[in-house]
UniProtKB/TrEMBL annotation:
K(+) binds at residues 120-121, 228, 323-324, 440-441. The chain crosses the membrane at residues 20-40, 46-68, 80-100, 142-162, 188-210, 245-264, 284-301, 331-349, 399-420, 465-489. InterPro entries: Cat_transpt, TrkH. It is found in: Cell inner membrane; Cell membrane. This is Trk system potassium uptake protein. Belongs to the TrkH potassium transport family. Pfam families: TrkH. PANTHER family: TRK SYSTEM POTASSIUM UPTAKE PROTEIN (PTHR32024:SF3), TRK SYSTEM POTASSIUM UPTAKE PROTEIN TRKG-RELATED (PTHR32024). Keywords: Cell inner membrane, Cell membrane, Ion transport, Membrane, Metal-binding, Potassium, Potassium transport, Transmembrane, Transmembrane helix, Transport. Coiled coil: none annotated.
Length: 491
């Protein structure tokens, strides 16, 4: 057995590297899918994927050999390292097909695009997407789809164990975190994988029956359920702006991805109304209904036909709230109220345990519960008030987690916006760019990175900063920040 001395250390990197090796091998197999498509089409642009496969597969094999015989048993410290390093490594190697196949892209561009894909952000630096090879179009969709399932597993099986941002609220009753984490994660991944694949197939077939071309249906089906937002056209879903059936099918697909996947599993087993009983699901749907109603009336009184207004508003609101990032129109041009509303909606996000980014609905609900209780304390100083969420008593640990996450979320947005301003970006572009990156939404505001633009004109330094912001947002910020503390690295 080949071992390195480092791996014999109790806090060694052996288990982490071994799992990273497995992830790279799986990623390399996904690279064979667009390669097979290009081979069937007789397209000569196969070499980028061949080189990317060789590098990714080769690196995975080397890591496997270096960690041969290493027993995989992760401790909390290693879980933090693995969670962050896995997203960084997957993003880096996912960029290889674009680095090899799109020579016009800088390294910053390719990495930005892959980070945006893996984190399901949906921001893009590509211009002329229609003219990309079918292989690259498919690869962009596959990256978001793979990132989507990784996000769900992380949110359900990893973050509650790490006590990140109040996620302990969503630890399932059957979880026994005194035992090993990986068997639990594996069980969750299998169940979620079946549901995820099923919803994706339904979305793909629905798009195809509604009139999309086969490749478009396949890519958009994956990126809708993953709430990713990558489309096969520069105009995003503006390509289908005059096809309301496709837009409403997309609304359903995006909502499917934004709800807690663990509840789908419970529904299949218990056949009960657990989805509607969940407090965050009701909160998300109520928010969507109110905002869609208000903005539909806002557009209707300004002269737009009611059904068209409803369709356009519903699609774009659901897209932003679920952090998908599709757009049918430049909604910032609908009026001042619309621009302000979409900026605030950028922060919300979907439900915990879904593919959505953002702060998540439950944190706003917990914040509201704390606010109401604080007002009660001011009126009844000697009163005893129990704070509950989803029928469970909120613990001090959970409340501290929500407060800490919320603070660091907005702090990260503020610091990133300041950094982007130093790169020469105007205030609207810098602030909305920081917000959309950390919230993993996609489009920002303004002429440059708004729904009608993209991130290509930004300097490379800004793209690197935004890439870091996307990764931090997807990893719930605290998971990354804890690695920067000296205490974490002490024995």
């Amino acid at each position: 057995m080949l071992r390195l001395p480092l791996f014999r250390h109790p806090a060694g990197a052996g288990p982490v590297l071994r799992i990273l090796a497995m992830l790279l091998l799986v990623l390399s197999l996904f690279m064979l899918i667009p390669l097979a498509l290009l081979a069937l089409e007789g397209d000569g642009q196969m070499w980028p994927f061949l080189w990317a496969f060789a590098v990714t597969f080769g690196t995975g094999v080397v890591f496997i050999l270096l960690t041969w015989g290493v027993h995989i048993e992760l401790r909390p410290r290693q879980m933090f390292i693995l969670t962050t390093s896995s997203w960084v490594v997957m993003s880096a190697f996912s960029s290889l097909p674009m680095q090899f196949g799109a020579p016009r892209l800088s390294v910053a561009d390719a990495v930005f695009e892959s980070v945006s894909a893996i984190t399901t952000t949906g921001a893009t630096v590509l211009v002329g997407i229609e003219h990309l090879s079918d292989g690259l179009k498919l690869w962009r969709g596959l990256m978001q789809w793979v990132g989507g399932v990784g996000i769900i597993v992380m949110a359900i099986a990893v973050l509650p164990f790490l006590r990140v941002g109040g996620m302990r609220l969503f630890q399932t009753e059957s979880s026994d975190w005194s035992d090993k984490v990986l068997p639990r994660a594996g069980t969750v991944a299998k169940a979620i994988g079946l549901v995820y694949v099923g919803f994706t197939i339904v979305s793909i077939v629905s798009y195809w029956l509604a009139g999309m071309l086969p490749l478009d249906a396949f890519v958009h089906g994956m990126t809708s359920v993953a709430t990713g937002g990558f489309a096969n056209y520069d105009a995003s879903f503006g390509q289908y702006a005059d096809q309301p059936v496709i837009l409403w099918l997309s609304v359903l697909s995006m909502l499917t991805g934004a709800l807690p996947f663990v509840l789908y599993i419970r529904m299949a087993r218990e056949r009960s109304g657990v989805l509607w009983k969940d407090q965050q699901v009701r909160g998300l749907l109520a928010l969507l209904v109110v905002v869609i109603a208000l903005l539909t009336l806002y557009r209707a009184v300004r002269g737009m036909e009611f059904f068209d207004a409803l369709t356009q508003v519903a699609f774009n609101v659901v897209s932003v709230v679920t952090t998908t990032g599709y757009a049918t129109d430049d909604y910032t041009a609908w009026g001042p109220l619309s621009a302000a509303a979409f900026f605030y909606l950028t922060f919300v996000g979907g439900c915990s345990g879904s593919t959505s980014g953002g702060m998540k609905v439950f944190r706003f609900q917990v914040g509201l519960i704390m606010l109401v209780n604080q007002l009660r304390y001011l009126v009844h100083a000697n009163g005893v008030f129990v704070q509950r969420y989803n029928g469970r008593v909120l613990t001090d640990d959970q409340i501290r987690g929500v407060i800490a996450f919320s603070f660091f979320f907005f702090f990260t947005v503020a610091v990133l916006a300041l950094g982007l301003s130093l790169m020469g970006l105007d205030f609207v572009t810098a602030l909305s760019g920081a917000a959309t990156a950390v919230a993993n939404v996609g489009p920002g505001l303004g002429e440059i990175i708004g729904p009608a633009g993209n991130f290509a004109p930004l300097p490379d330094a800004a793209k690197w900063m935004l890439s870091i912001g996307m990764l931090m947002g997807r990893l719930e910020i605290l998971t990354v920040l804890v690695l920067l503390t000296p205490t974490f690295w002490r024995k």
